From TrEMBL:
<dbReference type="InterPro" id="IPR017871">
    <property type="entry name" value="ABC_transporter-like_CS"/>
</dbReference>
<dbReference type="Pfam" id="PF00005">
    <property type="entry name" value="ABC_tran"/>
</dbReference>
<dbReference type="InterPro" id="IPR013563">
    <property type="entry name" value="Oligopep_ABC_C"/>
</dbReference>
<dbReference type="Pfam" id="PF08352">
    <property type="entry name" value="oligo_HPY"/>
</dbReference>
<keyword id="KW-0813">Transport</keyword>
<dbReference type="InterPro" id="IPR050319">
    <property type="entry name" value="ABC_transp_ATP-bind"/>
</dbReference>
<dbReference type="InterPro" id="IPR003593">
    <property type="entry name" value="AAA+_ATPase"/>
</dbReference>
<protein>
    <recommendedName>
        <fullName>ABC transporter domain-containing protein</fullName>
    </recommendedName>
</protein>
<dbReference type="InterPro" id="IPR003439">
    <property type="entry name" value="ABC_transporter-like_ATP-bd"/>
</dbReference>
<dbReference type="InterPro" id="IPR027417">
    <property type="entry name" value="P-loop_NTPase"/>
</dbReference>
<keyword id="KW-0547">Nucleotide-binding</keyword>
<feature type="domain" description="ABC transporter">
    <location>
        <begin position="8"/>
        <end position="247"/>
    </location>
</feature>
<keyword id="KW-0067">ATP-binding</keyword>
<comment type="similarity">
    <text>Belongs to the ABC transporter superfamily.</text>
</comment>
């Protein structure tokens, strides 16, 4: 609730300490068993949000609760224990696997670290998890370099799932893969979710890719959530100009969808999060910008069915003519 993550620049004699709010006052509830996608351009704070929820980056203000328990200030052993219930999967499976560890060791390690007492059960657990991740259990003695990118991502996913976590943050897990592999890995995420009752926060820069996969989608811009709703509602009736621009920018826009042409272009660069524009942070790039947008920050409007968006157009439509 009201989660803010700040990065502090160095203070010097000539320069006051600079504070970059990578995530600014975000309110987000993730229901058990759902897949919530967080979408936005690079640098919008979505990875930082994911890390903050897992308590792997410091939190400046606000609170993170997990299953009703406040985990914002946990440390030491209590934090380690809580962390066994959540996992993170990264974009680059090459970097997230230790090249010196066999696949067996890679999957057995989290079980050992989190105190598996019955050592005899480790081997069958590892082999079962490899099958569940679509890998031949006979691969167990091989090393990461012997696998393709897609297979390595399967190993990383198996490693994340082996502790039977409740919640997995998937940080752009498809970005390093080609399109046909992306679809296979999405299928794997869906299958594992059903098999192990997982909840996902799925971070992506590709809105089109998550429509058929996520239950709900949160769209982020410069550290703020600008729109959130079910995937179906955002697909049918995106309310925020930024969401509409992301949809229009997708490689294969659906010609049957009714997106106002004014929203079709996303111009200009993303402003620096160190110095976000006043008023609506999107106003420097918004095709529908009004005067009020430059000075007053829009608040979230409730659009029904849990869909919310922060845009002045929703509270004060532009004057006709
Ligand atoms: Fe565009 Fe104004 Fe809405 Fe921001 S508040 S998205 S600038 S119309
Ligand atoms: Mg990122």
């Amino acid at each position: 609730m009201g989660l803010t993550v700040e990065f502090r620049g160095r203070r010097s004699l000539f320069k006051p300490e600079s504070v970059v709010q990578a995530v600014s006052n975000v309110d987000l509830t993730i229901e058990q068993g759902e897949t919530l996608a967080v979408v936005g351009e690079s640098g919008c704070g979505k990875s930082t949000l994911g890390r903050a929820l897992l308590r792997s980056t410091p939190i400046a203000h606000g609170r993170v609760e997990f299953k009703g328990r406040d985990i914002t200030r946990l440390s030491g052993r209590a934090l380690r224990d809580a962390r066994s219930q959540f996992q993170m999967i990264f974009q680059d499976p090459y970097a997230s696997l230790n090249p010196k560890m066999s696949i067996y060791e890679t999957l057995a390690e989290p079980l050992l670290v989190h105190g598996a007492t019955d050592r005899a059960s480790i081997r069958p657990q590892v082999l079962d998890m490899l099958s569940a991740a679509g890998l031949d259990p006979s691969f167990a003695e091989r090393y990461p370099h012997e696998f393709s990118g897609g297979q390595r991502q399967r190993v990383a996913i198996a490693r994340a799932a082996i502790l039977r976590p409740d919640f997995i943050v998937c940080d752009e897990p498809l970005s390093a893969l080609d399109v046909s592999l992306q679809l296979q890995i999405l299928k794997l995420f869906t299958a594992l979710k059903q098999q192990f009752s997982l909840t996902y926060l799925f971070i992506s820069h590709d809105l089109a890719r998550v429509f058929g996969f996520a239950d709900r989608i949160a769209v982020m811009y410069l550290g703020k959530i600008v729109e959130i709703g079910t995937a179906a509602d955002l697909y049918r009736a995106p309310a925020h100009p930024y969401t509409r621009a992301l949809i229009a920018a997708a490689p294969s826009p659906n010609p049957h969808r009714d997106i106002p042409p004014a929203a079709a272009t996303l111009r200009g660069d993303i402003p620096s999060p160190a110095n976000p524009p006043k008023g609506c942070r999107f106003h420097t790039r918004c095709p529908q910008v009004m005067d009020v947008c430059k000075t007053r920050e829009p608040t979230m409007s409730d659009l029904g069915n849990g869909q919310r968006a922060a845009c002045h157009l929703l509270t004060q439509p532009p004057m006709a003519g």
